[in-house]
Amino acid sequence: MEVPFVSSGALSRRHYKLVSEVENATSMQAADQFIWAEINNFQRRARTADMTLQDWKEKLIILLYCAMTISTALPAQALDFALPHAVTLAEAGESVSDKRIGYLFCTETMSQDHELRLMLVNTLRKDLQSPEVPRICLALDTLIGSASTDVIPAVQTRLHDLLSHPSLHVRRRALLTFRVLAKHDRGLLQSICGDISKRLHDTYPMVLNAAMAVAVAAIQNDSVDPDIFRPAIEELLMSLAKANDIELAHGPLLSATSALRSIGLDQENLDMVATVFSSAVNTNDRPLVLSTFMLLCTVDPAILLGKDLSPVRDIRDYLTSSEPNDQALFLSCLDAVDPVLWAGTKPETMPLVLEEWEIERVMGFLDSFDPLVRKKTLAILNKIDGNIVSTYYVQSVETMPPDLPLPAREAYVSRLLEVIEMRCDHEGEAYAHAVLDLLRKLSMFSAGVSASTSGPSASNKASVLESVVAAVLEHVRFGDATFRVSCATTFVASIVGYEGESSLMTESKASDGSAGGNTAEPTGMVIAAALGTEFCGQLAMSPASLLRGFSSRLSRCPAGVQDACLLAMLRISAECERVPPDIMQTVQEIAKRAGRHIRRRCTQFVALSDQPAALRDVLQRAKSQSLPDFLEALQSTPIRESSPITSKGTSGDDRSPALTEQPLSESKLRYDAYEAPRPTARIRTRRLSSTSSIHSGVSADRQMSRTISPGQLAVVGQMNEYGGASKMNTHVGQPKIQTAVDDVASRVDLIAFDSPFMSDPPTIASPGADAAHEVDFERIWNTLENASSARGWCEAGLEDIVNRLRGLELPVQTVAEGSPPFLGELKIIVQGAGGEPGNSAILRVRANDSDGCLWRMRCGDASLQIQIKRLLTDA
């Protein structure tokens, strides 16, 4: 944070210091440490120090900042030590500003059953009795924000009196307070019907809007008969339509039309509403056009036809507009109206309103780049005739271009998923069957295209469609409980049956047209793995059958899909008393033929299958039942692993050591070797992960590994693991420090990640070379003690840093992290002109498990120093 104290708006130097420390923290965990330290300090001072109300006002503001800024939610009673002082400030504060802080703190942190709530209610009652309007408004705002049942008897009588208060601000807030309290006592609104009717004739628009909102709430709660308020609101609508100041009447007009949609429109006033609608169209008042159009749609179509009213005819100009807002308005209107009024579904009653070219333009919205426009168009066509949507879907599947690159294919399939969502509505089983059928057809289509060409291209081979996985999981997640379970059951059942019956197995073909064996459809396998992990305890299938289904298809899946399936199997094994031996044998066979990451995952499965207590501990740590959260908990839990499964053909001397999970600890986020660099404010926008991250070691004693994050599960299908090892993606984005909501949102996305697999890196320094360079490195480092020095942060890993330095076309020597001097740091020597130490650059680089590397450099050549610094600071 580079804002000086005088311009920061901070209450004190302490407040400024805390915000600066949090904003400049190098990690999310470090920022949380500063926040917890401040909370604990306040808690100690609350027990020992004697502070004034003004002191506590500042402390409460800082505590509210801590509660809103911390990355994980505070425990329920973490700030209860400050509640007595907040209640005291709300009661005895000298100014409205002081009292507002006390009320706000109580609203945000006090539970409904807290012992101090009675004192808070008493304070609210006193402020409502105050003759000062600001104090009354403050108390009403607090009631609106934290209404409860126990407060109603204490304030009901005074609230009723405030409905007639001289101040419009008090009247408006009193109405809204009644609406909120009615959620706890439905009879409240029935007792103030007369007052609501009076307020419907108020002269102030703000009070009118509040009165109509309360009237609608009363009708929706079945507290009163709609006929009580309908005449008053229709009369109000008529007077507003004739008002001279249209701008002032605009808000109440919208509220009146919206209220009448809930209350119901009297047929006698239909012509008046039609006049308001025509006026809104002529003045291009889009909000009022949509509101009055939807009000007209509540009337029986036969009545509209009898009065020769055709609302669609009046909005045809919006269809031809090039403005996206006009097009969206037109489609929203069509979606709200009965097709009989415009689509010609009953030509003997109402002919087609739109011309042929206008119908074609509506159909053209199916190809819009805006998903909202596409979905509205599908809904409109489905209302007219469901066969139109079905025909469009079949034609789209059959005419998909064969040479689409992967991103374009994902976009194409995502649009087909929108059609499936429309056709299947809330039927989970039908939705799952339709998605599986689509994926199977696409897989067969890709296999046929690959066989017809001389060699499979990147766009034709079976790949995990990231956006499809995300769209399906999101749609399932937002469905109701019945939809979710039935959908998950259908997806997982597709891998439980016999091979020939599985809709996730497709027959691949060789280039000569002969059968090439069955392969598992990768996208469907990832979806099944994710849903199997989340719903395995709710499915009507035995855990053993689920394990056999996944294990039988492991050998036919690409590496990324194998990883997702193994994680799902690990979660499902927690539901088994004992994993069947044939499944263990299958996993061990897979490990012998797999690469390092999958071999490690297989070892993990074998180890945890024999440690039910450790697996239960992982499940308890998981924030939810989803696959990303399970993986996150798995990575953060220390686990005793069994001996590694060696790959086929390796000997005991040259095989790779077992790769074990390492829990994320604070020691990996803080460095004691030298002071951490002071980053700029952009570090607040850098991605932080609670899991282990890419760590490229260069020591021969420490093999390279890359542990995937909770989302990094499945998308290597489109990479190069089919023909060999995949290429590591070293690009690192610049996300932000996550809040609690951001953390939930990020865990939802299963497939926004790079490939977790990488080939063994080229040897940077041989073991024999380490000893040769140890003395030279320390000697050169000490020699350049008085030379120019620099330090900083690099987003790349160790291997990438070395590759960047080699791009200078200068001799580069390295000493591994495990070799002295400076253990734990990669030592790099870049020889300058003439190979003289005085012209060389010497670097010490320490890797961070999640976020890149810290580096220090000494260099005797200024130009070389600038070159290296640019290489390390470029993202």
UniProtKB/TrEMBL annotation:
InterPro entries per the record? Adaptor_Complx_Large_Subunit, ARM-like, ARM-type_fold, Clathrin/coatomer_adapt-like_N
Q: Where is the signal peptide?
A: none
Q: State a GO cellular component annotated for this protein.
A: endomembrane system
Q: Which GO terms describe its biological process?
A: intracellular protein transport; vesicle-mediated transport
Clathrin/coatomer adaptor adaptin-like N-terminal domain span: 80-237
Compartments where located: Endomembrane system
Please give the residue ranges the record annotates as the region Disordered. Answer: 634-672, 686-705
Q: Which keywords appear in this protein's UniProt record, sorted alphabetically?
A: Membrane, Protein transport, Transport
Short name of one Pfam family for this protein?
A: Adaptin_N
What are the Polar residues biased-composition ranges? Answer: 634-650
Mind telling me what this protein is named?
Answer: Armadillo-type protein
